Amino acid sequence: MRIPFTAVLLVILYLNAAPGPVLAEDVPAPDPAPQADTVAAKDPVFTQEQLDQMLAPIALYPDALLAQVLMASTYPGQVSEAVTWSKANPKATGDDAVKKVGNQPWDPSVQALVAFPQVLATLGQDPVWVQRLGDAFLAQPDDVMGGVQRLRHQAQAAGNLQSNQYQNVTVQTAPAPAPASSGSSTQVVTASSPPTTIIIEPADPQVVYVPSYNPTTTYGTWAYPASPPAYYPPPPMYYPGSALVAGLAFGTGVAIVASLWGDCDWGNNDIDIDVNRYNNINANNRITNNQNKWQHNAANRDGVPYRDSRSRQQYGRQLDGATQRTAFRGDDAQRAQARDKARASMDRAGIERPATSNRQARQQMREAQTGNSIGNRMQPRSDNPRATERRQETRNTQVRQHNNQVNQRRQGEGQGRQLAQNRPSNTAGRARNNAFDGVRSPSRTSAQASRGRTSQSFAQRPSASRAAGHQISRPSAPARRGGGGRR
Fold first, then answer.
1. pLDDT by residue for the chain (487 residues), tens digit each?
2. So which residues are the signal peptide here (predicted)?
């Protein structure tokens, strides 16, 4: 059957007007793949299991003390130095201890921890844990703060976190998110309750009690049996007759006024700074009112490497240009002037300048080995008469010492040869009297064999005479000569 041409035309027009299949060129191009650095930055450095394990020993600290520990842990090298200082000064506590370390080149967050020697005693038991804690807070602040709240809820559910005469524990409800400003009537509202935040504060704002507890039992059943938290026993000297309240031990309180100047901002997962308290205790390093948020200072890291690439990019000291590199090394005009002044003083005193290059240092070493120099790079210069005399006297002393050593060595060798000559002449013969003695002397060997046969025949004759019943006559012993010697 033949189809009319008009019908075919109508079908073609209908197909062109109808929405057709989606072609490849109609699909918008996808966004370019993220760079490797971006992907690495989004990957968590620590898992939730690892975070809970490292946060368990400090999650129940008061908020202000917890904030100081988190800030200070980002400078693990300085924390170790503070631990050493605290051990040497065990009675220094509170604001007085912080003022004593005001001249130390430590970050103010580290200086604040010397007010609590019991905390430093705990941190000093595991420096690796301290560094991991600081790396986690720099790389994953939201996860760290969330992990602290998760652990606090577990301790509260187990009945081991409650208010008492040492601390106040409050639960705050976070405000519900504001509805979206959309005119659509199909907005979805979740029915789940908003999260809660547990806040721990000292019962007396000017006296802080540091709790001590066993994290393996305080949080109830640990969610990760294969990775239990570490328990760092408290130092007994700071917990004499400690009171045990709901699984927490409280020792001697620490009186403070301005030592704790940080506090946890749970809404933004960072740390707020009380500027007034900070400036009262850190007189040598004051800040302004707009510096009320904590920022990590990479200069106080003291060369400790950062764990993740994002932290290395953000806090690493990337100095571009020769000027910045020179400033980092400290080669400024003041140092150059001091160096020139020191060299001029050495010239006036007749002291040889130190080597300024490896080649010059090797040349001085060769001169010292060949005797052309005394080997001291502070050697007097030869253009000074007194220096020349001192050098000549020193060389003469060295020559005399060398000659004495040679004479002593030669004298010892002569004594050794004299002892060898005084040895008995038969010593060598006795040394050669072994199993192979006489092998090269047949006549001597036959004489020894004859003496052996004769002695054997004499040994057999007495027994035969006894068997025959004959009397055996023994030769009399020869008379002694000398009669005991002349008196």
1. 555 544 444 444 444 544 444 333 343 444 444 444 444 445 689 999 999 999 999 999 999 999 999 999 999 999 999 999 999 998 899 999 999 999 999 999 999 999 999 999 999 999 999 999 999 999 999 999 999 999 999 999 999 999 999 999 999 986 555 554 444 333 333 344 458 999 999 999 999 999 999 999 999 999 999 999 999 988 888 888 777 788 899 988 999 998 999 999 999 999 999 999 999 998 878 899 899 999 999 999 988 999 999 999 888 754 344 444 444 444 456 666 777 777 777 777 767 666 666 666 677 777 766 654 444 444 444 445 566 676 777 778 877 887 888 788 777 777 767 666 666 544 444 444 555 555 555 556 566 666 666 555 555 554 444 444 445 445 555 555 444 444 4
2. 1-24
Tokens standing for 202?
A: 């000292």
Contact between 217 and 57 under an 8 Å Cβ cutoff? The reply is no
User: In 3D, which of 254, 312, 286 has the Cα closest to residue 108?
Assistant: 286
Domain layout of the chain by residue ranges: 45-174+194-315, 331-414
The reported pTM is 0.57
Phi-psi sector, 209: left (phi>0), alpha (psi -120 to 50), beta: beta
Give the pair of three-digit tokens for residue 303: 């060369």
Contact 264, 145 (CB under 8 A): yes
Question: What six digits make up the tokens of 133?
Answer: 């804690």
Q: What is the 3-state secondary structure (H, E, C) of the chain?
A: CCCCHHHHHHHHHHHHHCCCCCCHHHCCCCCCCCCHHHHHHHCCCCCHHHHHHHHCCCCCCCHHHHHHHHHHCCCHHHHHHHHHHHHHCCCCCHHHHHHHCCCCCCCHHHHHHCCCHHHHHHHCCCHHHHHHHHHHHHHCHHHHHHHHHHHHHHHHHCCCCCCCCCEEEEEEECCCCCCCCCCCCCCCCCCCCCCEEEEEEECECCEECCEECCHHHHCCCCCCCCCCCCCCCCCHHHCCCCEEECCEEECCCEECCCCCCEEEECCCCEEEECHHHHHHHCCCCCCCCCCCECCCCHHHHCCCCCCCHHHHHHHCCCCCCHHHHHHHHCCCHHHHHHHHHHHHHHHHCCECCCCCCHHHHHHHHHHHHHCCCCCCCCCECCCCHHHHHHHHHHHHHHHHHHHHHHHHHHHHHHHHHHHHHCCCCHHHHHHHCCCCCCCCCHHHHHHHHHHHHHHHHHHHHHHHHHHHCCCCCCCCCCCCCCCCCCC
**Best CA proximity match to 107, nearest among 73, 63, 135:** 73
